[in-house]
């Protein structure tokens, strides 16, 4: 399972677009965790509409929210996405395949595709065809080991 962790604070509009892109994925074994840092704009309502698990997080920024998210993740892999990003329909398939084919690798970092760039028809075609990877993907076990060893 892939746990998608999204830190969000007052990201109602962006989150809707991101969750819609996740909803269009061809991969089924995932969960979405939205770590809400005290939104007042309806961010939680949008997350609930898409069956995302919403966790109240501290208002200390996205790094702390990501830590809260991975600590609550149930998946073997953790995929961090910011609310202002989009993914292609094959993205989660590509993430799972990359980890399966590279069992010695714990972390992938790829270039992020900003959602505003994907308004361009060429970018949309590339993303749709290739399922453009965005964000950072990690084996969840690496965080658990770090927490155990250094108290992360």
Descriptive overview:
The protein is built from 6 helices and 6 strands, in the order E-H-E-H-E-H-E-H-E-H-E-H. Helix content is about 40%, strand content about 20%. It is an alpha/beta fold and about 150 residues long. The model is unreliable at about 130-135 (pLDDT under 50). The longest helix is centred in the first third of the chain and has 12 residues, at about 10-25. The protein has a 6-stranded mixed beta sheet with strand order 3-2-1-4-6-5, sandwiched between helices. The protein has one domain: Spore Coat Polysaccharide Biosynthesis Protein SpsA, Chain A. The radius of gyration is 15 Å and the shape is flat.
Q: Give the full name of the CATH homologous superfamily.
A: Spore Coat Polysaccharide Biosynthesis Protein SpsA, Chain A
In one word, what is the shape? flat
Task: Give the beta-strand count.
Answer: 6
What percentage of amino acids are in beta strands? 15-25%
Which class do the helix and strand fractions yield? alpha/beta
**CA distance, first residue to last residue:** 23 Å
What composes the largest sheet? 6 strands, mixed
- Pattern of helices and strands: EHEHEHEHEHEH
Helical residue percent band: 40-55%
Question: What is the total number of structural domains?
Answer: 1
